[in-house]
């Protein structure tokens, strides 16, 4: 019984833990991520409000610049905005869950937050890979 | 007895959290390396554009010093953009390498270092966002004042 307890203690001592340094890094990461989310979110909301209330102005401006492609460009802009909002939501979820987890000393909440962050970077990676592929195709087309 | 209590009541990073952190590290490594490669490509295209790119014939009365100043300004903007892309990519790769090493070797010191890099990366983006917002507000204010006049 005593040997098992000693073994567990040894295992715990050599496990990586959420030390004060880790907590400090996580808190700072959450703080700066929240600043990024609030500012980006405000800009997106401004753009959406401009789009909704100044639709005639936006429509004529887009038509002047893009002509017949206007509807495609507007559709693409809406898709990009929706994807961006989803990304910001993931990041915001990470900041709130990790902050709560640290405040309440709750590993489940910290894990949920880290899981959100993982999804955020996973989707960023997929988009980055798509961007690389499209860039490579464009360069090949130009060279040929 | 007290040491045992502090260990029992501390939070440790279990398997689920380790898997999430490993996944984050791997994707960041990919994004970081992509960013470094893109920065290199952008640097090359900037050099080609500045020194060999097409330039319209300057109007009469414009001397070489003005043209050199214009190119220097262009170079400065390119360098800023390259730095804004390269620096976070390098930080990402450092974070990823330290995190993977920390999780593989169960090293607390490396984990602290890795999360410190993540903190720096997020801080960088936070500061860049604030600067972009400030510049946007100044730009909008200048545009509005120009329109009003």
List keywords for this structure.
heterodimer; A: 144 residues; mainly alpha; 5 helices; flat; disordered N terminus; B: 149 residues; Methane Monooxygenase Hydroxylase, Chain G, domain 1; 4 helices; 86% helix; elongated
The percentage of residues in β strands of chain A lies in under 5%
Oligomer: heterodimer
Q: What is the C-alpha radius of gyration of chain A, as a whole number of Å? A: 23 Å
Order of helices and strands of chain A: HHHHH
What's the CATH first level of chain B? Answer: Mainly Alpha
Average of pLDDT of chain B: 83
Q: How much strand content do the residues of chain B show?
A: under 5%
Average predicted local confidence, pLDDT of chain A: 80
Helix/strand/pairing class of chain A, anyone?
Answer: mainly alpha
| Topology pattern of chain B, helix = H, strand = E | HHHH
Q: Tell me the CATH architecture of chain B.
A: Up-down Bundle
Helix content of chain A: over 70%
- How would a crystallographer describe the biggest sheet of chain A? none
Q: What is the distance, rounded to the nearest whole angstrom, between the alpha carbons of the first and last residues of chain A?
A: 74 Å
Number of beta-strand segments of chain A: 0
Plain-language structure description:
- The complex is a heterodimer of chains A (144) and B (149).
- Chain A has one domain.
- Helix content of chain A is 91%, strand content 0%.
- Chain A has 5 helices and no strands.
- Chain A has helices at residues 2-14, 20-53, 55-66, 70-104, 107-143.
- Chain A starts with a helix and ends with a helix.
- In chain B, helix 2 runs antiparallel to helix 3.
- Chain B has helices at residues 2-8, 15-52, 64-105, 108-148.
- Chain B has 149 residues and is mainly α.
- Chain A binds chain B through residues 9, 12-19, 21-22, 25-26, 28-29, 32-33, 35-36, 39-40, 43, 105, 107, 110-111, 114-115, 117-118, 121-122, 124-125, 128-129, 132, and chain B through 4, 7-8, 10-14, 16-17, 20-21, 23-24, 27-28, 30-31, 34, 102-103, 106-108, 111-112, 115-116, 118-119, 122-123, 125-126, 129-130, 133, 136.
């Amino acid at each position: 019984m005593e040997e098992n307890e000693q073994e567990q203690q040894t295992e715990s001592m050599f496990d990586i833990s959420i030390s004060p340094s880790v907590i400090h890094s996580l808190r700072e990461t959450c703080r700066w991520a929240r600043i990024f989310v609030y500012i980006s979110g405000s800009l997106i909301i401004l753009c959406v409000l401009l789009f909704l209330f100044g639709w005639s102005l936006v429509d004529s401006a887009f038509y002047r610049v893009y002509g017949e492609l206007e509807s495609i460009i507007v559709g693409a802009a809406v898709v990009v905005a929706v994807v961006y909002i989803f990304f910001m939501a993931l990041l915001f979820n990470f900041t709130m869950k990790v902050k709560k987890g640290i405040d309440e000393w709750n590993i489940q909440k910290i894990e949920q937050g880290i899981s959100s962050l993982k999804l955020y970077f996973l989707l960023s990676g997929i988009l980055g890979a798509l961007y690389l592929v499209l860039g490579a195709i464009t360069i090949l087309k130009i060279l040929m | 007895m007290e040491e045992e209590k502090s260990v029992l009541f501390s939070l440790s990073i279990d398997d689920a959290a380790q898997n999430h952190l490993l996944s984050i590290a791997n994707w960041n490594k990919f994004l970081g390396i992509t960013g470094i490669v893109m920065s290199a490509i952008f640097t090359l295209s900037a050099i080609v554009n500045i020194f060999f790119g097409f330039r319209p014939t300057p109007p009469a009365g414009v001397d070489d010093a003005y043209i050199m100043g214009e190119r220097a300004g262009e170079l400065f903007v390119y360098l800023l953009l390259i730095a804004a892309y390269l620096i976070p990519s390098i930080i990402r790769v450092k974070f990823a390498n330290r995190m993977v090493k920390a999780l593989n070797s169960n090293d607390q010191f490396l984990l602290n270092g890795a999360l410190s890099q993540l903190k720096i990366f997020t801080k960088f983006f936070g500061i860049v966002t604030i600067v972009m917002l400030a510049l946007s507000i100044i730009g909008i204010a200048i545009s509005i004042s120009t329109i009003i006049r």
